[in-house]
Design a protein that fits this description.
227 residues; 8 helices; single chain; SENP2 protease; alpha/beta; 15% strand; two-stranded antiparallel sheet; Adenoviral Proteinase, Chain
Length: 227
């Protein structure tokens, strides 16, 4: 098939990224982030994705959302939620300097819970806050923390009061979203939840897609382009 040579070229690039060179070699640079071979190697089978990979991928999703036909996406970085939950709005008010997050359709909040990645998604069009956990744990308190943040951010930045009762908060159940079947794929799940949501697509992937998604993400990060 005509796709084969392309696929083979991609495969050899991915293998080279894993196998050749020094851990500190820089393989990609964008969004004020540098990604090294060591970072890329977290995308090897059963690797734990690190903050750089997560934040770089969120950057790619935001970049894509500027194109025609995509919802406007804003993504917080992986350090935002831990800072917010430990300090309240005051501790993160400068994070949105010069940005009106309410001008977007979707806000992505990747969350690092010590040894697990999850995702919180604010849909400003629907007034929903949803929590996605590939291990099926609930995050109702996380949804409430972020709603409180949105109320304070709206009050301070736009002088507009949000009506909390108009908002729907929901932790996605294990029957609603795919669940990981190992202890290391949570970061990939978060990236792919965010990918599908930021295209307004239903989440239809399965744990079986993970090895393929990992290799695809290597290529996308190196080329700074989503396939």
């Amino acid at each position: 098939s005509p796709l084969n040579p392309l696929f083979q070229a991609m495969e050899s690039e991915v293998s080279a990224a894993f196998d050749h060179g020094e851990p500190e070699d820089i393989l990609s640079r964008a969004f004020k982030l540098t990604v090294t071979r060591e970072d890329i190697c977290t995308l090897q089978p059963l690797g734990w994705l690190n903050d750089r990979i997560m934040n770089f991928y969120m950057g790619l999703l935001v970049e894509r959302s500027k194109k025609e036909g995509y919802p406007a996406v804003y993504a917080f970085n992986t350090f935002f939620y831990s800072k917010l939950s430990s300090t309240s709005h005051k501790g993160v008010r400068k994070w949105t300097k010069g940005v009106d997050i309410f001008e977007h359709d979707v806000i992505l909040v990747p969350i690092h819970l010590r040894i697990h990645w999850t995702l919180l998604v604010v849909d400003l069009r629907e007034k929903t806050i949803k929590y996605f956990d590939s291990l099926g744990q609930r995050g109702d308190h996380i949804c409430r923390t972020v709603l409180k943040y949105l109320e304070e951010e709206s009050r301070e930045k736009r002088n507009i009061e949000l009506t909390a009762s108009e908002w729907t908060l929901h932790s996605m159940g294990t029957e609603e979203i795919p669940q990981q079947n190992n202890g290391s794929d949570c970061g990939v799940f978060v990236c792919k939840f965010a990918d599908f949501i930021s295209r307004d697509k239903p989440i239809i992937f399965t744990p079986e897609h993970m090895p393929y998604f990992r290799r695809k993400m290597v290529w996308e990060i190196i080329h700074q382009q989503l396939l």
